[in-house]
Design a protein that fits this description.
This is ornithine carbamoyltransferase. Its main location: mitochondrion. It is found in: Mitochondrion matrix. The protein contains 13 helices and 9 strands. The protein is of the alpha/beta class. The protein folds into 2 domains: 137 residues, Rossmann fold; 157 residues, 3-Layer(aba) Sandwich (Rossmann fold). Helix 4 packs across helix 5. The relative contact order is 0.17.
Amino acid sequence: PSLRFLQLGKACLESVNLKNRSFLTLKDFNPDEIKHILRVSADLKHRIKLQGQYLPLLQGKSIAMIFEKRSTRTRMSTETGFSLLGGHPCFLTPQDIHLGVNESTTDTARVLSGLADIVLARVYSHSTLEQLSKEASIPIINGLSDLYHPIQILADLLTLQEHYGSLKGLTVAWIGDGNNVLHSLMMSLAKLGVNLRIATPKGYEPDAAVTQEAQRLSKQFGTELQLSSEPMEAAQGSNVLVTDTWISMGQEEEKKKRIKDFQGYQITMQTGSVAAPDWTFLHCLPRKSEEVNDEVFYSPRSLVFTEAENRKWTIMGLMVCMLTDYSPQIPELKL
């Protein structure tokens, strides 16, 4: 790499220090910090995937991965990503580690702090993560909670940056449930100059406190934030159409009612017909056909499989930022 890139990396590192910080919500991270994580992620993808380099940046380190809920992408991306960087992942199910049941969350946090370098926890309650973070002396990553899913958003942002070449000025339309993925978009998009239009059925709106904070952020960063219950209104002129499952784990009982309440929310080519000419589609998966039809899901406009792969590069970028002093070699991304 040229000296200029190295200096650039160094200057950036001095202003952004993510080492040993927990990553529970994007609410706690400023624009420069989010951009730095994305830049490190893009850099690792470039060096490892495209150039075939071996970068054992996490050699000798281990991660404890706590999963109260099962997951394909979160487990695979973290486990393969940590290994690829030379580290050792330990996967813990509720059978191995029953948080707060056979050992208190406080005790678990303290024990793991002596045995691992970092913890990723995918939990039901966000308060479990806050408790872990409070008691642990090592960084904690939110692998998903009822309130937020920040690692998913890093993958979404990298995917859009790669596709559009820049994020600033894009308009994202969320058409679906006011859930944890939406909450994390609301805590990050304005910071990167991205507009957000939300359409949720009545009774399925995002959390009131999250909405209040998102309104404050959109004022601060001069972006648009629109909330309605009209899918076509949200899609109008938007660059990105996003949805997610309507029935999350633990909500199976409500399936019939939810499918009825979400009538008219399926994303189809008709939804896309009012979007911007360059519109694309995102979904964090697993996907059901009532949320988006096959025509959109498998179309060239759908970025879902790149988005799924980017879960790996962004979790790697995040872990490298949290555990090392790595300087990315690629120039700063155009965000």
